[in-house]
Design brief:
The protein is of the alpha/beta class and 479 residues long. It is built from eight helices and 34 strands. Pfam families: Pectinesterase.
């Protein structure tokens, strides 16, 4: 796109788009969750999930309780209970909902819920404790784990699993390294899955040397502040109509991944009364999700910069992430108290070379292509990357003092913004993209490409809202 001095796409100060009451009204729960399918051609499919949860004495098809394992329909692990329900579905070709109750305690291991080709069986998994922290599903797994390490560590627990579960395990084990999309404690592929009253904890401690730039030292807890330390607690892998109620999700980087079936479509999730914590991009993905009356907790103790969200919604998809009446709080660490964290940054997914700004690389140029690549000084960008604009709105939320109010939204691979909202000094990165609050920003920043069909702007309303807040209020004393 040019050469010369370092230029950060015309913007040198932060923005805080505040919505009007009329604009905020577009993001009511019924509207956000009413559409699903291909970007730009979503079908109307009204979905009205409730906040009802199974009571502790509800009927179930399988119980997870290691102290009683071996009794009828009682299993030592959650995955064994899932496999039992899958076996029942295979025998009966049932489309019924299967209920799995989990006794209080610590439950080790990964859990995979596949989508069956022959059945639309749906799962409800619920903890029997008085509170979510009483029933904990946990494991240690990260994106840079080699496939053979994954196989050695987890093969035994999948040895007697259903064929559909084994296929997932074998596909992941065959990888050189797992990648973020395969590094979760709980993986949901089955539509209609419901999870209630549980804690899901990825115990990875951000300590893998191979995932860390050379020269960095660990902190007192044995953690690195920077590097490729993605470790997902909960992954919705293209599943539609997923509900999480009173679920605690714990990790550092990439805690909650809400993945779409592909880069040009969406599915839906509804989360209420949840507690989600992490640091780097810890709520992220391509799909549509509505978060209600939940706590979103930024963790600064590791020393990493924190972005609460990293949506990569396709620009033709109607809605991304919506947070309604949520508490945005933090762990009271020194870094959090500096007020430098961000509500989010729009994930420039799979980008290799950016068309934004002016690169200080002689001969640098980027063209549209079917694949995103960068062989300096020439690069290409695919429509899937260009259109992953990321949409996220906060409604009536209480905002802690960890958020940089002058610049709550951050650039992707930019230098960042100070507490006064001014752009910080920093070196240009080939994956850079500025904050884009809507289509007009994209058209302005990419004015030479504005009429290019691959941008997709002609199909996007001029007043489409990609980022915004409505009626934010300060959280006094972070409580």
């Amino acid at each position: 796109m040019g050469s010369g001095r370092n230029c950060w796409a015309l913007r040198h100060s932060g923005v805080r788009p505040l919505l009007t009451e009329a604009q905020a009204a577009r993001f009511d729960r019924a509207s956000v969750l009413s559409r699903v399918g291909p970007a730009g051609a979503e079908r109307l499919d009204p979905w009205h999930p409730t906040r009802d949860m199974p009571c502790r004495d509800a009927q179930y098809d399988a119980l997870v309780d290691s102290s009683r394992a071996g009794h009828a329909n009682v299993f030592a692990t959650v995955q064994q209970a899932v496999d039992h329900c899958l076996g029942m579905a295979r025998k009966t070709e049932s489309n019924d909902r299967m209920f799995i109750a989990v006794a209080p305690g610590l439950h080790e291991g990964l859990v995979y819920l596949p989508k069956l080709a022959f059945s639309r069986v749906r799962f409800t998994i619920f903890g029997l404790g008085e509170a979510p922290q009483d029933t904990v599903l946990h494991a240690n797994i990260d994106a840079e784990m080699p496939g053979d390490e994954y196989a050695n560590r987890f093969e035994r627990q999948f040895g007697q699993s259903d064929a559909a579960v084994k296929e997932i395990f074998q596909r992941i084990a065959a990888r050189t390294t797992l990648s973020t999309a395969n590094a979760s404690v709980l993986r949901i592929e089955a539509d209609g899955t419901q999870i209630y009253n549980l804690t899901i904890h990825n115990r990875y401690n951000a300590d893998r040397n191979a995932a860390t730039p050379a020269g960095l030292e660990k902190n007192h807890a044995g953690q690195f502040a920077k590097g490729q330390h993605q470790a997902v607690a909960f992954l919705s892998a293209g599943a539609d109509k997923v509900i999480l109620g009173a679920v605690h999700l714990k990790s550092f980087q990439d805690t909650l991944y809400l993945q779409a079936p592909d880069k040009f479509s969406t599915v839906r999730s509804y989360l209420f009364d949840c507690d989600i914590e992490g640091d780097v991009d810890f709520i992220f993905g391509q799909s549509t999700a509505y978060f209600e009356t939940s706590t979103i907790r930024a963790i600064g103790a590791r020393g990493a910069h924190c972005w609460l969200t990293a949506p990569s919604t396709n620009l033709r998809t109607s809605f991304g992430f919506v947070f309604d009446r949520c508490d945005l709080t933090h762990d009271s660490s020194d870094l959090a108290r500096r007020g430098v964290f961000n509500l989010g940054r729009q994930w420039f997914e799979a980008v290799r070379a950016s068309p934004y700004g002016i690169a200080p690389v002689r001969g640098y140029a980027v063209t549209l292509c079917s694949e995103s690549r960068y062989d300096p000084p020439l690069g290409s960008i695919a429509p899937a990357s260009l259109q992953s604009v990321g949409k996220c709105v906060f409604l009536n939320c209480r905002v802690g003092d960890h958020v940089n109010i002058a610049a709550p939204w951050d650039d992707w691979s930019g230098p960042g913004y100070g507490p006064d909202g001014q752009l910080l000094p920093g070196e240009w990165q080939p994956r850079y993209r500025p904050v884009q609050t809507g289509p007009k920003d994209m058209a302005r920043f990419l004015s030479p490409w504005a009429g290019t069909e691959a941008l997709g702007l002609s199909e996007c309303p001029d007043d489409d809202i990609w980022l915004g807040e409505y009626n934010p209020t300060p959280m006094l004393n972070n409580t």
